[in-house]
Prior knowledge:
Layout: E1 3-13, E2 16-21, E3 24-28, E4 31-39, E5 44-50, H1 59-65, E6 71-76, H2 80-83, H3 92-98
Antiparallel strand pairs: 1-2, 1-6, 3-4, 4-5
Amino acid sequence: TDVVLVYRQQGVDNGNPVWRQLPITYYLNEGELDYTFDFTRADVQIYVDGTMDFRTQNSNFVGSYLNNQKFRVVIVPASAGAKNAKVDYSDYNSVIKHFNIDDSHPKVLK
Length: 110
């Protein structure tokens, strides 16, 4: 009954990571690039898709959008109180503040 939220770090502003909620679509000169995800009770899968052939892109493009990406996965309760909560779920910082989540030591998966 919980809700899974996924955020991608899209940059840094004044030393602070900037998180953007998935799904995200970028419209680039090379074509469309989509980050999306799905989840079950056992796992979360993050995907990159789009209208371009990623194998033909130059290494700078691949490095910028496909390699060494950082994501945050947040599981929040789907209780009635959480559904009616006045929190902007698209704002990672609002979500962790509202649900009192300690993100100072995130689990790193490779």
